[in-house]
Amino acid sequence: MSTDIVWLRQDLRLADNPLWRGPLGRQMLCVYVLDEHWLATGRIGRARLGFLWQSLIALRGELLKRGSDLLVRVGEPVAVVASLAEALQADRVRVRVDAGWEEARAVSRSRRRLEAVCAVEELEGGMLLAPELLPTPLEALPASFSAFRRRLGPAPAFADPEPAPVTLPPWPEAAPRGLPALREVCSRSAGWRPGPRGGFRFAGGESAGRARLDDYLWNSGAVARYRETRDGLVGPDFSSRLSPWLAQGCLSARQVNAALGEWEAEHGESESSRWLRLELLWRDYFHWAARQAGRTLFGGRELPSPPAAFSAWCRGETGVPFVDAAMYELADTGWLSNRARQNVASYLVHDLGMDWRLGAAWFERCLLDYDVASNWGNWGYIAGRGRQGRAHRFHVLRQADHYDPEGAYVARWQPDLERLPAGTSRHQPWRVAPEAFPVPLAVPEDWHDDLLPPGDGAGR
Ligand SMILES: Cc1cc2nc3c(=O)[nH]c(=O)nc-3n(C[C@H](O)[C@H](O)[C@H](O)COP(=O)(O)OP(=O)(O)OC[C@H]3O[C@@H](n4cnc5c(N)ncnc54)[C@H](O)[C@@H]3O)c2cc1C
Question: What is the residue-wise DSSP string for 331-384?
Fold first, then answer.
């Protein structure tokens, strides 16, 4: 009897998942292995671990409905998958191609280890584009997103998502099943809840992701305003907030694109719907760029020892409210708007002069939506270590005034700012109330023209 092992990683969904595409073996075991090294080194923080566990529980429910099941183990992924394949005398291990260098290396290692046992089959999925739809061979991927987009043409066509399987092959007799309780894996994660100030609750799993997509498109209809609101900082709907589900593969980009197409069929294509699709394409671009970059995406994985000011940045104690508020939000919710991510990253790298990899590693730990390609790709882009080689610095003080003109965002996360008048004062508390607020760790030269006169408590 032929036996398949489906090795799940960032593809925790039934629909539009190439891993279930037939013909499948007569029996099939589905396994997810939480890398023990991530746990031991803190590379996965408690917020993401909780979201991951919810996603695994939801997936198990869907697999059981279809006559299959899920096995979740904590260990060294290659060793766990290989020993299962050996024990079951599997014919094939199926796994999705991942953008990460470590993930790709894990597949190569499992292929070598299982050479005499079974085949290891890698399948593409999750992205808008399949490799054959790329406008250039991967080795010739354009150095900038704009060039990539131009090469795709004005209206690239993306394939439709595939439906979820109705039934799946039975579980191998006597094979282990089930998952450990989260409190046994990490009690801190099991006890973690986001604070109320974020105003949004992320729940892992395919149907929760689908519900958020429907809500954003059809219930709140907020997608119609995406173009104008996408740089927002406060509220549940200024952007889609689909990133955690996309990152864990609870949703595929093609599913989001197809749902957006249905919305456009009823409401008409708009700047907003086109822009949201463009963001999905950015995600694709980072994915393909990471695959091309391999290990160099990380700029060398050995991180320098963090200087003291790095901990201040992590804890939201730089003295710059726009940075500190975002770092509180990240710690409290596991999520941040794109605008906030860009600013905290820029301040760390360009104004505090720290190694960008420290920031990327901190985000890797904290973000609910951590995605190897998008995270390291965006950090590299800001630091000037990306494909373009040009750094992107943000004038954080002007950004704060522009995107948070009343100081509502900073006061939400730092309530002691509420006593200052709404407006610029809240972004420069060390200027208007120096007795209560310390001078920031770094006040760059080009902020000087924008600084309020000292003690100007009435403020702007
Ligand atoms: C320093 C830094 C680190 C980042 N790390 C991650 C990460 O680990 N995981 C992650 O998913 N995104 C990351 N991003 C990209 C972006 O900030 C988030 O995707 C976005 O804020 C998620 O919110 P949303 O789902 O509401 O996005 P929307 O604005 O609604 O966009 C829809 C989707 O498009 C994709 N997308 C949007 N912007 C980007 C972008 N700049 N790069 C890649 N994909 C994008 C995401 O999948 C997102 O869910 C990072 C950005 C920066 C500046």
Answer: HHHS---HHHHHHHHHIIIIIS---HHHHHHHHHHH-TT--HHHHHHHHHHHHT
User: Which of 53, 72, 35 lies closest to 183 in space, CA to CA?
Assistant: 53
H helix or E strand, kind and range, residue 60? helix 46-65
Judge contact between 300 and 255, C-beta under 8 A. no
Mean pLDDT of 180-185: 97
DSSP 3-state of 122: strand
Domains with residue ranges and CATH for the chain: 3-125 (3.40.50.620), 126-162+206-293 (1.25.40.80), 299-460 (1.10.579.10)
> In a mutational test of the pocket of ligand 1, which residue from 231, 335, 354, 369 has the highest number of ligand atoms less than 8 Å from its CB?
369
**ipTM of this complex prediction, to 2 decimal places:** 0.99
Instruction: Give the confidence band of 459 by pLDDT, cuts at 50, 70, 90.
Output: very low
- Determine the average pLDDT of the residues in 266-272: 97
Question: Which residues sit with their C-beta closer than 6 Å to ligand 1?
Answer: 230, 239-243, 246-247, 276, 279-280, 282-283, 286, 337-338, 341-342, 345, 363, 367, 369-371, 374-375, 378-379, 382
Q: Does the structure show a pLDDT above 90 at 450?
A: yes
By the 8 A CB rule, do 31 and 72 touch?
A: yes
The yes-or-no verdict on residue 184 having pLDDT over 90 is: yes
